[in-house]
Amino acid sequence: MTLTFAPQTDSATPLYLLENGGDALSDLPPAARDWADINGFTAGLGQSLVVPAPDGGIAMALVGLGNKAARKRKRFGAAAARAKLPEGVYHLASQQTDALAQEFALGWLLAGYRFDRYAEQPAPKAQLVAPSGLDATRIEAIAAGEAATRDLINTPAEDMGPDELELATRKLAEAHGAEIATILGKALLDQNFPMVHTVGRAATRAPRLIDLRWGSEGPSLTLIGKGVCFDTGGLNLKPGASMGLMKKDMGGAATVLGLAQMIMSLGLKLRLRVLIPAVENAVAGNAFRPGDILTSRKGLTVEINNTDAEGRLVLADALALADEDKPDLIVSMATLTGAARVAVGPDLSPFYATNTEDADALRKGAASSADPVWELPFWDPYEAMIEPGIADLDNAPKGGFAGSITAALFLRRFVTDTPRYMHFDIYGWNPTAAPGRPKGGVGMGARALLDALPEMLEL
């Protein structure tokens, strides 16, 4: 789905963004103020009103921004007005801070997203001309990357298995002149990706490692996304209620692909690598078992105490490969643990960072991009919890405490030669509809990273 601004036109209807309270309507013509008063327009967040012209047309449209407290509670809230406005092309006529105008413009585009692959989903017909003074190309690139992420997550596993995830990556590579290679099936064993192969070997669609490279100058960034296209839990089978959303277990891969699309579309001066271990965690006679001990690409052995903690296994081999290159920054994204959701809910992206400056830059990027994150610690005292004694590492420590932290510590063991590593334990799903965020797949942390990369990598 293409999310873009309308072309410039002299016939666009003026659209005023108005904050709630005080003299919000004072700058409007007297007739418009009277009309707003008659219709009870108070500039509440997402409230909209069309002001008629003497000839029966539309003189202007009013959209409420609410107050600062309301906007903090509902980011992109003003974008909800898009669905209420009549068909037409609008342009921002009121003066706003760049930050507020940018958030509204991005929210407006994101509010136009519909997942219509299987059923018609009418999109809003109100269009917006790119606001003056803003980088429209950047906003459109961000919206397009987010839409790509949502499409990938929303597609059911029947149509988004490892094959289709590879195809989506290939199409992205072709569109931007990137190189791509895939290691498939038993070749994973020959090229030393044993845990990717083990997790995916029971599925009818072969496991693979997808490797995309783009850019020839600048600092090096490697993005790694968990690509478990469906997770039954393996022999530790999930109950049906827990399996219902497992098409989203490739949300980490979808998010890094969306971010990669943003980076390449904007032509950032960096050397980008994207690694996606793409598998299905299925049940068959050759499925891996609780109690098995696997040897990773890194040489570390892993005791399997739960086959439903498979994401960290495939990520581990990919992280080991990334670490061999010693890039300037490695970032992994994964729908990894339920513990993260218990800790921060579905909206926040918990992240871990080995570098304090990177964490600070990310927090600033999150604030400027309306993409909230929250730092959790690589808490060294918990290292003992992932050491079972019979092997180097335990993939599912008993006790249930600090599940997201122990998973992050597990992954960190595979990044030993690259000082700067960040890990995101995302949800990848919006459980209830919100302005600019329809129910379903959603990117998390990508916009924050995009805004933070210039400071992180001195671009």
Automatic annotation (TrEMBL):
Gene Ontology MF annotations: manganese ion binding; metalloaminopeptidase activity
One GO CC annotation: cytoplasm
Keywords: Aminopeptidase, Hydrolase, Manganese, Protease
UniProt xrefs under CDD domains: Peptidase_M17 (cd00433)
All residue ranges annotated as the Cytosol aminopeptidase domain in the record: 306-313
Classification via Gene3D superfamilies: Leucine Aminopeptidase, subunit E, domain 1 (3.40.220.10), Zn peptidases (3.40.630.10)
GO BP terms: proteolysis
PANTHER family on file: LEUCINE AMINOPEPTIDASE-RELATED (PTHR11963), PEPTIDASE B (PTHR11963:SF20)
Nucleus listed as a keyword: no
Family the UniProt entry places it in: Belongs to the peptidase M17 family.
Record-linked PROSITE patterns: CYTOSOL_AP
Tree of life domain: Bacteria
Listed name of the protein: Leucyl aminopeptidase family protein
